[in-house]
Fold these 3 entries.
Entry 1:
Amino acid sequence: MEGVKAREVLYETRNHATRPYKSNYPTQRNEDGKGVSSSLISVSGERVAVATGNQITILRKEDDYQEPYGIFTSSNLGTFVHGVWSGSLDILGIADDNDVLYFIKANGEEITRVMKRQLKTTSPITGLIPHDSIDACGSCLCSFIILTEDGVLYHIEINQAASISFMHTSNIGRPMKG
C-alpha cells in the first residue's frame, strides 16, 4: 500500500499514588453497589485530595503527585461527597453523606469537625465554597461558606485554636447569629 505511512506513537503510563496495601474492611459502598471517588484540586494545583469512601489521600505537586503527603481516615462510616480547598491556605473543607464537616490540613491532620446538629439545620449539606476575605480577623486561618439544601448559607471560620465560629444567613438575606 503506497502512500500509507506508519507513525510511531510514544506514551507514558504513570501511577499517581503508591503505598502499601491496607485492607479497608468492611468496604463502604453506595446503595447501588458502586464505589465513589472524588478528586479535589487546590486552586494553585499544588495539592490534590483523592476521597474514596471514608478515606482521603492527599498528594503534592512537589512529589509529582506520586507519594501520599497525608492520609485522613474518618472514624465515621460515611462517604465523602462534597469538598473544596481553601484558597489562601492548604486546608481542605469536606463533608460526608452523614452531613459531618471536616477541616483537614494538607498533611492529613484533622483541625476540627462540625456535626450537622451544631449548624442547627435539618437540611442536607449540598456544597462548600472557600471564602478567603482580605479583611478576615487575624486569628482566623480560613473560612468556608456551607450551602444546605434549603438554600441557607453558613459562614464558618476556622481559627488557629482549632475551634470554629459560624453565622448563618436566612434564604431571604437577613443575617442571623448561630
Entry 2:
Amino acid sequence: GMAKFKGTHMREKKLTEMIEQKVKEANEVHQGDETSVEYKVAWDQVEEVSQAKADLRLKLQNTTRSFRILL
C-alpha cells in the first residue's frame, strides 16, 4: 500500500508547484489592475488548485486513519 501513498504525496507536491505557478501568473497578469477579468480568472484557478490540494490532503488523512484501523 505504500506505493499508492507515495503517488499521492507526489500529486500533492505537483499541486503545490501548480499553485505557486498560478499565483505567479496571476500577479503578472494583473500588473496593478485588480479589476481586470484576466486577474479574476487567474485567481479563480489558484483557488481551484488550492481546493484540490486540500481535498487530496483530507483524503490522505482519512486513508491513513483507516489504514491504522486495519493494522
Entry 3:
Amino acid sequence: MTRSTLTSGDADQSRRHSSGPSGRGSVSPTKDRGRSKVQLEDFELIRVLGKGCAGRVLLVRHSRQNTVHAMKAISKRSVLASDELPHILTELSILKRFAIYEPHNDFVTRLNYSFTDRENFYFVMDFYPGGDLATQLEMFGTLGHVRTRFYAADLVLGSKLTFRHRHGVILRDLKPENILLNASGHCVIADFAGKKRIVMDRAWSFVGTTEYLAPEVVRGHEYSYAVDWWGLGCILFECLLGRVPFRKDDDEPPVS
C-alpha cells in the first residue's frame, strides 16, 4: 500500500479545510521526542484500523522517528454535537496522568502525542497488533480457564485497577472491546473516554455498556469503584462461557 503524508481529510473524509498553517491549533506532545511540536503532516498513513460515529483510528508512521502508532482522530463537530467534550477532555487528562505516573507500564495504553487542528482532536498512542478481547471471543467462542486466568491476572495485577482507584479513576465502561492485546498477548486497557475522576469516592452519572453495567448504575443510584469489579466479573464470565451473564433487550439502545 502506498503511504502518504496525513491530512485532516484522511482523518475525516466528510470535510476538508485549508492546508495552510493558520488552520492548526495548539500542539501538546506528551513526551519529549527531540522537538517542541508535532503536527498531522509529521505522520504517514498506513491504513484505517477502525471507524466510529465520532472519528477514526488510523495506523500511522511518524516520519522522523520511524515509529508506528495508532492515531485516534476525533471529529470536533461530532463531539460538540453530542456534548462529548467533557469525556474527551477527561480521557486526555487520564492518559497524560498515566504517562507521567506509569511511563513503563505495558498494561495500559500509552499516549505519545496529542494535538488538534480545525477539524479534529488527535491522540497518538502505541499500536497493539493483537486486536482486542472481543475479537478473540468472536473467533474462539470461549477462551478456557488458563487464558481466562491469564487475562484476569493482567487486568488486576498488570493494569492495576486498584492503582487507578487510588488515583480517583473509575473505568466505568470495562468491556472486551476496550481491552487490547499487545504483541506478547498481554491485556492493555484502552479507551478512557467513559472514565471518570472523582474526589469523594462516589459518582452518579450513567455511562457504560448495558451488559457490563453494575446494578447500582442501571438503577441510577450512587456508585463507586465496585462497578469496575462487576464489569471485570462479567468479562471473565463471558471468557469462560461464551456469553454475558445478563443480556439487554434487543430493542434497548446502548447506554451513553
